[in-house]
Design goal:
By secondary structure, this protein is an alpha+beta fold. The chain is built from 6 helices and 5 strands; from the N terminus they run H-E-H-E-E-E-H-H-H-E-H. The chain has a 5-stranded mixed β-sheet with strand order 3-2-4-1-5. The longest helix has 16 residues. The protein is globular, with a radius of gyration of 16 Å. The two termini are 26 Å apart. The model has no long low-confidence stretch (mean pLDDT 89).
């Protein structure tokens, strides 16, 4: 779990841990995602979007709204900063070169995708309150205070 996702639900963490134990041999990582509903979040470059194939693997990650809404409104998915990697995958990640997509987008999981390694995407229920900007930090502080008052 990344430090910019301090409020990820324990159930989401458990789901990723469980999925990591049952990875297919050709898959190196598990990455959680949720569905995006808010237009602001879909357009926000601090929110990483993901496109998933029919088998549940990541096809692409981007800070831009993907897929492009050419016809019907597509379903937008938000990648959470909740990764599960095997020890082998972590060692491999360190040795793989950063490709042009990872360098451009600033999304670490693209390193696996660009080097033809599968990343299993796992749908979880989570409100996804990430802290990427000073405004996010203020919102997170308000959220934390409201929880403490309950």
């Amino acid at each position: 779990m990344q430090g910019d996702e301090p409020f990820i639900s324990p159930a989401a963490i458990d789901a990723v841990s469980e999925a990591l134990e049952h990875l297919a041999p050709d898959t190196l990582a598990v990455n959680a995602y949720t569905e995006l509903e808010e237009a602001g979040a879909i357009l926000d470059h601090n929110v990483v979007k993901v496109v998933v194939d029919a088998s549940g693997s990541a096809l692409m990650f981007s800070r831009q709204p993907i897929p492009y809404p050419r016809g019907d409104r597509p379903k937008y998915l938000r990648q959470l900063g909740l990764y599960g990697l095997t020890g082998t995958a972590l060692r491999m990640f360190r040795q793989l070169p950063r490709g042009p997509l990872e360098r451009t987008e600033g999304v670490e999981m693209l390193r696996f995708v660009e080097n033809a390694h599968r990343v299993r995407m796992l749908s979880v229920v989570d409100n996804g309150l990430a802290v990427d900007t000073p405004e996010d930090l203020a919102r997170a502080s308000r959220f934390l205070r409201s929880r403490q008052l309950r």
